[in-house]
Specification:
The chain has twelve helices and eight strands. The chain is an alpha/beta fold. The strands form two sheets. A six-stranded parallel beta sheet has the order 5-4-1-6-7-8, sandwiched between helices.
């Protein structure tokens, strides 16, 4: 399994990858943009979800939610909106509220506005020293036995000039859809926004469930994780909304296995706070056995802020460079 010539590498990226490149793709960047603001009702303050309101503008709703710090919080808030209940005079308990036409309409407008915003972000100040970009360059240099899985919407092809490659050589799976599906103002977008299957809602809200999107496709991420020799996460929070993708994988890594079958797992995150948050997510996934990840697989988390873990990162990148060098030589020898 550790044969470097057959070494299978999975590179999984989240919004932190974009942010480390200086791309303005955070939720707050979008919130502050004209693409979002143009849909917010002037003079509106806040919805009270404790009361029945069947005419909700989702832009208004998100604008005044106080605990939204990132995209994972947007998904959480959409789930809260869709799963709210009210008392029914004819039933002894609260019941789910059916969706309103305005909610349907503004949800669709939210997807379109987000797509149009991201299609027009600037790439003029890309951080070419980003470790994420360096990993992409190393993996793309062979195009062999490597794959990129992105939970972002942004187009990876636009990064090729920054790694000095003519084209993207490794396959890419866009888990939540891509921007290129919307070519004209009349087109829809394949952007998938919403929440996971396990949220209890009225059936009329099921269009907000990610797997109910007409653009949702199979990416076989679980089988790809099982087949990988090395998995690199960059800028992904491993948050609760993505548990279905990763919980089984991390549980398996907590089980005893032969040394020659130990998978290499590297997680790149921003700072100590985000490192702790990731460990909490892993603890929740693994029935509080996080220490077994260190015991039964080759596991490490690196912080990129203020060069905290630079020595460890540079050592790892040297090892990754050596493995890609071996792959290149193998490919050349078969030509």
């Amino acid at each position: 399994m550790n044969n470097p010539t057959a070494h299978r590498t999975l590179f999984i990226i989240g919004n932190g990858f974009d942010l480390d490149l200086n791309l303005k793709t955070s939720y707050h960047d979008f919130l502050d943009s004209p693409y979002f603001k143009s849909h917010v009702t002037i003079g509106f303050t806040k919805y009270d979800l404790e009361r029945f309101n069947s005419n909700i503008n989702i832009f208004n709703y998100l604008k005044y939610r106080e605990k939204i710090n990132g995209w994972i919080d947007v998904e959480t808030e959409l789930a809260k909106l869709a799963s709210r209940k009210i008392l029914d005079n004819f039933k002894p308990e609260k019941v789910f509220i059916p969706v309103s036409e305005r909610e349907k309409q503004t949800f669709q407008q939210l997807r379109i506005a987000l797509c149009d915003y991201l299609k027009n972000i600037s790439y003029n100040k890309v951080n070419t020293d980003s470790y994420g970009l360096k990993i992409l360059r190393l993996l793309n240099s062979t195009g062999s036995n490597s794959e990129l899985i992105t939970f972002n919407y942004t187009d990876i092809n636009k990064l090729m000039p920054f790694i000095k490659d003519e084209k993207l050589m490794i396959p890419v799976s866009y888990m939540h859809g891509s921007l290129e599906s919307r070519q004209t103002e009349e087109d829809d977008t394949s952007i998938i926004l919403g929440f996971q299957d396990d949220i209890e809602v009225d059936d009329s809200y099921c269009f907000m469930i990610k797997s109910h999107s007409p653009y949702y496709t199979s990416h076989n991420i679980k089988s790809k994780l099982d087949q990988a020799d090395e998995v690199i996460f960059f800028g992904h929070s491993l948050g609760s909304t993505d548990y279905p993708y990763f919980a089984d994988f991390f549980r398996k890594q907590c089980a005893v296995k032969p040394d020659n079958e130990k998978i290499k797992v590297r997680i790149f995150t921003y700072d100590e706070e985000s490192r702790q948050n990731i460990l909490i997510q892993l603890r929740n996934m693994n029935e509080k056995h996080t220490q077994m990840l260190y015991e039964y697989c080759d596991f490490a988390i690196y912080r990129i802020k203020d060069h905290i873990d630079d020595d460890k990162i540079k050592k790892y990148l040297s090892e990754l460079d050596y493995r890609t060098f071996q792959k290149k030589n193998l490919l050349l020898s078969t030509l």
